[in-house]
Design a protein that fits this description.
Family: Belongs to the BioW family.
Bound molecules: pimeloyl-AMP, magnesium ion
Largest sheet: 6 strands, mixed
Strand content: 25-35%
InterPro entries: BioW (IPR005499)
Radius of gyration: 17 Å
Order of helices and strands: EEHEEEHHHEEHHEEEEHE
Distance between the termini: 18 Å
Function: Catalyzes the transformation of pimelate into pimeloyl-CoA with concomitant hydrolysis of ATP to AMP.
EC number: 6.2.1.14
Number of strands: 12
Helix content: 25-40%
Organism: Bacillus glycinifermentans
């Protein structure tokens, strides 16, 4: 990967107009690609946005741009799967795991109380573990983790070694969580999909790893969330710029996750 030139490729799709016009968010995606791989990357993102369980988009934007920054490769977080019998169980388990990662109980409660509002955001919400307040000031846009990718051959090898199914959604989520937890200001992440046909979610943390939770909501429910619990006394501009701009590959043979 070293020495090659890479491009950040991003897609967003919505229905009933663009996101700016108040359209419904359908799908988003991000990749890192060589020049030669651009056609495949754009096509993969086009497919992702066109065939989505949240609906048919009438607005889509796909763009690529040159990445003028060396790209590091880091090792994916450890993964574990926790079974939950109901959405209620799943949320209780998520609360426990977030606490284990160092998020105070009252802060978790405050975040859960605002979860409907956060589910309207098309990126992630940054939530301060000190004040129990949202601190990203990005409104319905949120913070979108970009400039990351996990080369497929490496993912396949990683999955085969662990007997993990080749689930592209898990691959993407684990890549996001690994990048997110790589920043020192991030204490933990809470996420579940806004897709009505996917009910597994996760809590992730540096030491905790990527803890999947098999049921976080009911089938048919179109509300998801992505909350990054951060230490509000840290430099949050640095954190946001890392999440949006710092290019990163996930690679089984890469550096340990705790680098930045
Ligand atoms: N950066 C920030 N926020 C994002 C990003 C990103 N790159 N991608 C998605 N989001 C936010 C956004 O608000 C979405 O509405 C929400 O997260 C859910 O995104 O089996 O599929 O892509 O191990 O629907 C987790 C479990 C699946 C996977 C999560 O999320 C597994 C999922 P989705
Ligand atoms: Mg989604």
């Amino acid at each position: 990967m070293q020495g090659e030139t890479y491009y950040s490729v991003r897609m967003r799709a919505s229905q009933n107009g663009s996101h700016e016009e108040g359209g419904k968010h359908i799908s988003g995606g991000e990749r890192l690609s060589t020049f030669g791989g651009l056609k495949d990357a754009v096509n993969a993102l086009l497919d992702k946005g066109l065939s989505h369980s949240r609906g048919k988009p009438d607005f889509m934007q796909i763009q690529f741009e040159y990445v003028d920054d060396p790209i590091r490769a880091i090792h994916p977080l450890q993964i574990e799967t926790n079974d939950a019998n109901s959405a209620e169980d799943g949320k209780a388990l998520a609360t426990e795991l977030l606490q284990q990662a160092g998020v105070p109980g009252d802060v978790i409660e405050k975040a859960f109380r605002r979860i409907d509002e956060f589910s309207e955001v098309r990126g992630a919400v940054l939530f301060d573990v000190r004040s129990g307040k949202r601190v990203d000031e990005r409104k319905e846009k949120g913070v979108r983790v970009s400039r990351l990718d996990w080369p497929d051959a490496d993912f396949r090898e990683w999955a085969a070694k662990r007997g993990v199914p080749l689930n592209s959604r898990m691959k993407e989520a684990l890549a996001v969580a690994t990048k997110v937890c790589g920043h020192p200001a991030v204490i933990a992440e809470l996420c579940w999909s806004d897709d009505p046909d996917y009910i597994t979610g996760y809590v992730a943390g540096k030491k905790l790893g990527y803890q999947r939770i098999t049921k976080m909501k009911e089938y048919g429910d179109e509300s998801g969330c992505r909350v990054f619990f951060v230490d509000g006394s840290a430099d949050l501009n640095d954190c946001i710029s890392y999440l949006e701009k710092k290019p990163l590959f996930i690679q089984a043979g890469g550096e340990p996750w705790n680098c930045h």
